[in-house]
């Protein structure tokens, strides 16, 4: 007697191919969504970091009645030459023990080592502070920006301004020293030995940039002046950014020496080797479509890279006087 089976023992080849195709389509749809969700989380963390920097700046202002300088005036024979706003706000961003270690560097390492901050050993200068790293940048934690591989390089810098009306295109953030040994004013809230306060923010704290972010061109490399090079590169532009060009511009940053001149999304020119005038960094990020910023009122937000260029420039200046467009 024959017994006939009900049903089939396996898939046909066609059915198997259809299932594989469906799974492939589902994975193709799912992966971008997962990547977008991860980037959204990273952008949120970056925004939180910048908000913490804004809060630290406000607490500093409450304590000293002004914001810290962009970077310190160098005086021959003085210690901690090229100190920046980054070092000043460490106690206000839950880094008091680290700040104390930095403050006592002359005792710990000797005066000669502490005369210039980029001479300090990697055990001190190389400490990475998470609050100054954007999680979307794969280079972090990085070192560089100050001539050696000793110093931590972060993603965040303060706003030096958008330049004068006679030079709005490429606003240099370092310039000639005048008779008072103070560099030219690029229009922003931060510069050499300038400790400005809220009353200097004539355009209003919600219309003036405090800080933004930049892209690090690789985890290591001896360079002078790239954005976020807190340990020695300040006179070459590392302390701040210019709003002379819009976020994520294709115009190269121009520093004393670059880690790379061909880095994706962050072109750079070697100002020293090329004999080029001016030193400036522009706001850049890995976030799709824009950069995170902190305004002088302490708020943090994403600004589109398609923002009107003149509006962006005006945001960088504390006393532009014009009415801002929507941003």
Numbering strands along the chain, what is their spatial order in the largest sheet?
A: 7-3-6-10-11
Radius of gyration (CA) equals 24 Å
Tally of DSSP β-strands? 11
The general outline is globular
Number of domains: 1
The SSE string, one letter per element, is HHHHHHEEEEEEEEEEEH
How widely separated are the two ends? 84 Å
Q: What is the percent of helical residues?
A: 25-40%
By secondary-structure content and strand pairing, the structural class works out as alpha+beta
Q: Can you describe this structure?
A:
The chain is of the alpha+beta class and 327 residues long. It has one domain. Helix content is 27%, strand content 12%. It contains 7 helices and 11 strands. The protein has helices at residues 13-64, 85-89, 96-103, 105-109, 111-115, 122-125, 309-316, and strands spanning 142-143, 152-153, 156-161, 190-191, 194-195, 209-213, 240-242, 253-255, 268-270, 290-295, 300-304. Strands 7-3-6-10-11 form a 5-stranded mixed β-sheet. The protein is globular. The N and C termini lie far apart (84 Å). The model is unreliable at 166-183 (pLDDT under 50).
């Amino acid at each position: 007697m024959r017994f006939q089976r009900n049903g089939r023992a396996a898939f046909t080849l066609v059915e198997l191919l259809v299932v594989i195709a469906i799974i492939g389509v589902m994975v193709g749809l799912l992966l971008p969504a997962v990547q977008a969700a991860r980037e959204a989380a990273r952008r949120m963390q970056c925004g939180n970091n910048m908000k913490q920097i804004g809060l630290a700046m406000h607490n500093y202002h409450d304590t000293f009645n002004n914001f810290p300088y962009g970077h310190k005036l160098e005086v021959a024979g003085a210690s901690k030459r090229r100190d920046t706003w980054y070092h000043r706000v460490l106690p206000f961003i839950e880094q008091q023990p680290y700040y104390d270690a930095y403050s006592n560097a002359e005792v710990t390492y000797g005066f000669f080592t502490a005369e210039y901050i980029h001479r300090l050993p990697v055990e001190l200068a190389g400490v990475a502070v998470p609050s100054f790293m954007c999680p979307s940048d794969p280079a972090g934690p990085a070192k560089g920006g100050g001539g050696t591989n000793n110093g931590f390089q972060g993603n965040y810098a303060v706003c030096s301004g958008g330049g004068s009306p006679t030079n709005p295109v490429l606003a240099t953030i370092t310039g000639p020293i005048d008779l008072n040994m103070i560099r030219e004013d690029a229009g922003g809230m931060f510069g050499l030995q300038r400790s400005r306060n809220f009353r200097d923010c004539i355009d209003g704290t919600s219309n003036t940039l405090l800080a933004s972010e930049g892209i690090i061109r690789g985890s290591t490399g001896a360079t002078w002046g790239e954005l976020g090079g807190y340990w020695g590169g300040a006179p070459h532009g590392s302390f701040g950014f210019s709003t002379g060009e819009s976020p994520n511009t294709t115009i190269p940053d121009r520093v004393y020496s670059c880690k790379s001149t061909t880095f994706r999304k962050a072109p750079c020119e070697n100002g020293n080797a090329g004999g080029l005038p001016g030193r400036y960094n522009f706001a850049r990020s890995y976030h799709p479509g824009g950069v995170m910023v902190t305004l002088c009122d302490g708020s943090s937000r994403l600004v589109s890279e398609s923002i009107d260029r003149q509006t962006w420039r005006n945001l960088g200046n504390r006393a532009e006087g014009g009415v801002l467009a929507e941003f």
